[in-house]
Design a protein that fits this description.
Layout lengths: L9 E8 L2 E9 L3 E4 L12 E7 L9 E8 L5 E5 L15 E3 L4 E4 L5 E8 L13 E10 L3 E11 L6 H5 L4 E8 L10
Parallel strand pairs: 1-5, 4-6, 5-7, 8-10
Antiparallel strand pairs: 1-2, 3-4, 9-12, 10-11
């Protein structure tokens, strides 16, 4: 897959400013928009919340979304959406895609990271159960630069013999949750 980072529709940088995690660079263009509320949660919490949203209520035919997000050392950022991202049927040869640089995470030894990556079968009430041509999700976590810590790829692709819906049978969701971080100081308490 060719990299779309040069044509990114969104770039975001979080750095420490005055001892607090702060968005220092934020760029987005159609069809992507970043919403960064001034206050989310307790004022003692040092976290930047970033909501991604798309015009049109989801990813529509011909949309291409590519994000590059950098979170500096000792910073905390939450990247989320207001609701699940809808992907609408493509018209003709116009495909739609969303790329988050293959979701590559580079962490240092004392980093904490929570990843929730999931996809639902679609609007199965409307007969759209696993009704797409291709889904690819790649999550890689590297420790201290290039030391692989976790490498995962999911590929769902229409086949010549069976389609995705037949292979998924009655499953409606694929989800992966990764919790990475320091052990709690209470872990060894009696």
């Amino acid at each position: 897959m060719e990299s779309k980072i040069e044509a990114a529709t969104g770039k975001l940088v979080v750095k420490k400013v005055g001892g607090k995690s702060t968005v220092t660079r934020c760029f987005s263009k159609y069809p992507l928009k970043f919403i960064i509320p001034n206050k989310v949660g307790s004022s003692e919490t040092d976290a930047v919340w970033v909501y991604t949203l798309t015009y049109g209520g989801g990813i529509v035919s011909g949309d291409s979304i590519s994000c590059e997000i950098t979170v500096a050392d000792a910073c905390t950022a939450v990247l989320t959406t207001q609701a699940s991202t809808k992907v609408y049927k493509s018209l003709g040869s116009k495909s739609s895609e969303q790329i988050l640089e293959k979701q590559i995470f580079r962490v240092v030894l004392d980093s904490s990271l929570v990843i929730v990556d999931w996809i639902t079968s679609g609007r199965h009430e409307s007969g759209e159960k696993w009704d797409f041509e291709l889904y690819r999700s790649t999550n890689h976590i590297f420790l201290e630069g290039d030391q692989p810590l976790f490498l995962d790829s999911v590929l769902l692709e229409q086949g010549n013999i069976t389609n995705i819906a037949e292979r998924m049978q009655d499953y409606q969701v694929i989800a992966m949750v990764i919790l990475l971080g320091l052990a709690s100081p209470w872990e060894n308490a009696v």
